[in-house]
Amino acid sequence: MSYGEDMREVKKYSDGMVYYYTTGKKDPWCLIKFENGHNEPLYDVDFLRKIQNYAKKYGKDVMYNKFLEISNLVDSNAYETNGKPNSKIADLNTIEKLSTAFGQDSLDIEKMFGYFYFTMIAEWYYKIGRKPSYLKHRIKQLGVYQVVKDDMSPQTAATYSKGRHIKELECTMKEDKFDMKIVNDFSIN
Question: How many CB atoms lie within 10 A of CB 77?
């Protein structure tokens, strides 16, 4: 896959790997990485597998609660920007700091949390038809919850929401005690 000239660097890591937003199939918020001399597409299933594996190593509650800290950054960002979040250096510094607790895995976990942060921001700009995504970044939270807390396979979690009605997904999120305030505050009916 080739990418347009609209690539916007959002984070360069200490090992030289870079995340970019670029125009994808659906919108200009496609996250890709540049590593080892070439661009690579990124897929939810790979990062869901990664967080599931780290949850086995460090504990489900530890990994899920760290993920919620990242999700809360996106919540705050959305409120500060009236529903138009974008990456902030302060947020990236927070992600780096909380990742240091994982020792030799810290850089890989920082990249993983970075992926979730950037893709959760992108969810705010995703359109279904002509309408913005109703569930915003809670859809990523659902996938993480499913693989970390429910031991769902990453492949199943990555495609779980496809073809499901919004109300069914919202009901599942409420059953799992998701904070839905941000969805309600920024929903367009």
Answer: 22
Q: Which of 20-24, 66-70, 178-182 has the highest average model confidence (pLDDT)?
A: 66-70
Query: Which residue, among 152, 137, 121, has the nearest Cα to 55 in the 3D structure?
Result: 152
How many angstroms separate the CA atoms of 106 and 40, rounded? 22
Supply the Cα-derived Rg of the chain in whole angstroms. 16
Q: Yes or no: say if 174 and 142 are a contact pair by the CB < 8 Å rule.
A: no
- State pTM to two decimals: 0.93
CA 167-169-174 angle, to 5 degrees, is 90
Q: CA-to-CA distance for 128 and 111, rounded, in angstroms?
A: 28
Task: Evaluate whether 52 touches 144 at the Cβ level (below 8 Å).
Answer: no
Helix or strand holding residue 69 (H, E)? helix 60-80
